[in-house]
Specification:
Layout: H1 3-11, H2 20-40, H3 45-55, H4 59-69, H5 76-100, H6 109-124, H7 128-133, H8 135-153, E1 154-157, E2 160-166, E3 170-173, H9 174-177, H10 181-191, H11 198-205, H12 208-215, H13 220-239, H14 247-272, H15 275-283, H16 289-305, H17 313-316, H18 328-336, H19 338-360, H20 365-389, H21 407-425
Antiparallel strand pairs: 1-2, 2-3
Helix pairs in contact: 1-4, 2-3, 5-6, 5-18, 5-19, 6-21, 8-10, 10-13, 10-20, 12-13, 13-14, 13-20, 16-18, 18-19, 19-20, 20-21
């Protein structure tokens, strides 16, 4: 049996044909290594090839084993945990609505939770590598869609800009949709492997779509946050040795920019910002900062006075002022106790930790960087949300996986989680693009 016949018989055992090129390449390389060894021992060309094929074993048995390894695998246990978290969030919101009388937003929440789960499953079945290959086109497309929506269908909700009305049937939150740029940004950086310092300006250019979109929502703080998230992804790409640059020099420069950004932001607002933006900046500084602290005091009080189990009347005082805003974690603390709140957050943290660990262990580096883009958003937003709910920082927009209200946040969470599960599903199938001029070693 020659090599061609062997591979043909083996290929018949592979049910997922997209994995076949990678399997054949893997086996051909192994047979070539064996063939070289046999040639070195004095065999002829034909004898060496025949011996190398025989060394591989029965093609049917090997094919069945390759089929078992190289096929899509669903992380059903973690998907079920995700569904349970969506269900728990929906139930807690409904129960709090009945008990609190605080007007906690509940209308259509169940629709959003179900929609998020359906979107997640749908994205999970999409091969993430195809998304990565078209990352630049998708980034430009997302930018144009959001800008067109802002220009032609932009609307104001509760005095806040940054919303898009879709045919009067639904309203999309641009400040949440922009997080979809992050996994695409990681995939774009992956395409620049092997380049030198020119990759720095390219990395900055591909930050612009998200920053420009957010600039139309008058939310400079969100622009800074997106820049920080993007820089984290960029620094990880640098640590992987993808670019021909001095790592320490790039680390120092990038971290310096992150530290300088808030100062630049304050200077821009003070010199060029609108009156209301200057007033917001003043509110963060003494003596006006005391007003911000007073607004956050009921949140700190709720956290300090909550019971381990059950409701606390002392913790509930002052929460009426927050109405329908996204303070579900604070309400859970006040009405159901610390243990319930910690258990719920711990389950979310366990899920995100697993997804992050699985992402960083990926052999496929495109999947690794795209997964990092997803987890940076999910973990970062969870931390920011908790800090705001505990009164430890001025509260901004309320997007948080599993906890925030609104259809836009639900869909974005579903897409990001779906991408992460897609990376898991295709981890033994998706192959690296051939373009690679540097050794890929991560810190």
């Amino acid at each position: 049996m020659d090599k061609k016949e062997y591979l043909e018989i083996l290929a018949e055992q592979i049910r997922y044909k997209k994995a076949l090129p990678m399997i054949e390449k893997e086996l051909e390389d192994h047979m070539e290594d064996q063939k070289r060894d046999f040639l070195a021992s004095g065999m002829t060309e034909k004898e060496a090839e025949t011996a190398a094929v025989m060394e591989m074993g029965d093609p049917v048995t090997v094919g069945v084993e390759m089929d078992r390894i190289h096929r899509p695998k669903m992380a059903w246990g973690w998907i079920l945990l995700t569904g349970a978290l969506y269900l728990a969030g929906m139930i807690l919101r409904c129960l709090l609505y009945d008990r609190s009388g605080l007007g906690i937003y509940v209308a259509n929440s169940w629709v959003y939770y179900v929609l998020a789960f359906v979107v997640m499953i749908g994205v999970c079945y999409v091969d993430y590598s195809r998304i990565g290959e078209k990352a630049r086109e998708l980034t430009v497309g997302l930018f144009l869609i959001l800008m067109a929506g802002i220009w032609f269908s932009g609307t104001v909700v509760n005095g806040s800009v940054g919303w898009i009305s879709v045919g009067g049937m639904m309203i999309l939150n641009v400040r949440v949709l922009v997080y979809l740029f992050l996994p695409l940004y990681g995939a774009i950086l992956y395409r620049y492997r092997g380049q030198g310092y020119e990759v720095i300006w390219k990395a900055v250019v591909w930050m612009l779509p998200e920053v420009v979109v957010v600039s139309y929502t008058n939310n400079i703080m969100l622009s800074l946050l997106l820049c920080v998230f993007s820089m984290i992804i960029f620094l990880y790409a640098v640590s992987c040795g993808w670019f021909r640059v001095k790592k320490k020099r790039v680390y120092f420069g990038t971290i310096s920019v992150v530290l300088i950004l808030p100062v630049l932001y304050a200077g821009m607002v003070w010199n060029f910002g609108a009156v209301y933006q200057k007033e917001r900046l003043q509110m963060l500084l003494p003596p006006y900062g005391a007003d911000i602290s007073a607004v956050m005091e009921p949140l700190r009080s709720a956290a300090a006075n909550s019971h381990m189990v059950g409701s606390s009347a002392q913790a509930m005082k002052g929460l009426e002022m927050y109405g329908d805003r996204d303070f579900l974690f604070t309400y859970i603390l006040s009405f159901y106790g610390i243990l319930t709140a910690v258990l719920f957050i711990s389950l979310i943290a366990v899920l995100l930790f697993y997804l992050l660990k699985n992402t960083l262990r990926q052999r496929n580096q495109a999947g690794r960087i795209m997964g990092l883009g997803c987890t940076v958003v999910l973990v970062g937003r969870l931390v920011i949300y908790l800090l705001g709910n505990l009164g430890l920082q001025p509260y901004g927009d309320g997007y948080c996986p599993f906890l925030s209200t609104g259809g836009s946040g639900a869909v974005v969470t579903g897409i990001l989680l779906g991408l992460l599960f897609s990376i898991y599903r295709y981890q033994n199938i998706a192959k690296e693009p051939k373009k690679s001029r540097t050794k890929q070693i991560c810190l």
